[in-house]
Amino acid sequence: MTVELLAQWMKQSKTTVVLTGAGMSTESGIPDFRSQSGWWQNIDPRTVTTTDSLLKNYAMFREFYQMRIQALKKCAPHKGHHILADLEKRGLISLIATQNVDQLHQQAGSKKVAELHGNILTARCQKCNKPHAKEQFLNNAICTYCLGKLRPNVVLFGETLPMEAWNRSLNEIQNADLVIVIGTSLEVYPVNQLPQMAKGRLVYINLDQSSDSGQFDLVLEGTAGEILAELDEALEGYSKG
């Protein structure tokens, strides 16, 4: 089965949802977390990405996220991001639900994006939840309202997902004719449950195959950029609307 079959399914589908994970961003130079070369091989996530770390070891927590935010300045959307944004404009994608916090989808021009794990480019106070600019977090400021600790708007381990993004993604996936999962290991709960909620066709695109790939109707092995480029060519400028 080939990319041409996926292109055919997209043409037939009334509603197509894309679910993206870290593998969508690695081609932009952003390290992933769970591959053999990912960050979690060198850093225990329990030491830096939890509310416990935020409250009890704030200096390390802040340094880790400041490093990640600064690293993003060198990154830009790759061709796969731009292809997805173009497919949305052409009426072929109704929603991108993403685990990524880098906002590269939006930078590429995608408008319909649900951020399941929040985003790292905005900040808020941990105590009173008032919004703050990321520059305040980068400059080691404290909350201007209650003097609390600032943090990025990412979902830390042990926190619940943003309900609006979750409900929107779940509803769209349950009602979609086609769900395309790109660049995720399907190891992180509860997002890894979303493909199981789909009633339509399921497609999996990833460089490393997941143990859960057997649930998919079509599996395409390769990077997000190369597979999406092949898909764009197979669609030959097709659009709906």
Number of helices: 9
Helices and strands: which structural class?
A: alpha/beta
Weakly predicted, low-confidence segments: 34-41
Share of helical residues? 25-40%
Write the H/E string, N to C: HEHHHHEHEEEHEHEEEH
Portion of residues in beta strands equals 15-25%
How would you explain this protein's 3D organization?
- There is one protein chain.
- With 241 residues, this protein is an alpha/beta fold.
- 33% of the residues lie in helices and 17% in strands.
- Strands 3-2-1-7-8-9 form a six-stranded parallel β-sheet, with helices on both faces. Strands 5-4-6 form a three-stranded antiparallel β-sheet.
- About 3% of the residues have low confidence.
Question: What is the element layout, followed by pairings?
Answer:
Blueprint: H1 3-12, E1 16-20, H2 45-48, H3 51-56, H4 58-72, H5 79-89, E2 95-98, H6 104-108, E3 113-115, E4 118-125, E5 131-132, H7 134-138, E6 150-154, H8 163-174, E7 178-182, E8 201-206, E9 218-221, H9 224-235
Parallel strand pairs: 1-2, 1-7, 2-3, 7-8, 8-9
Antiparallel strand pairs: 4-5, 4-6
Helix pairs in contact: 1-9, 5-9
Short description:
The protein is an alpha/beta fold.
Keywords, separated by commas or semicolons:
241 residues; alpha/beta; 6-stranded parallel β-sheet; 3-stranded antiparallel β-sheet; 9 helices; 33% helix; 17% strand
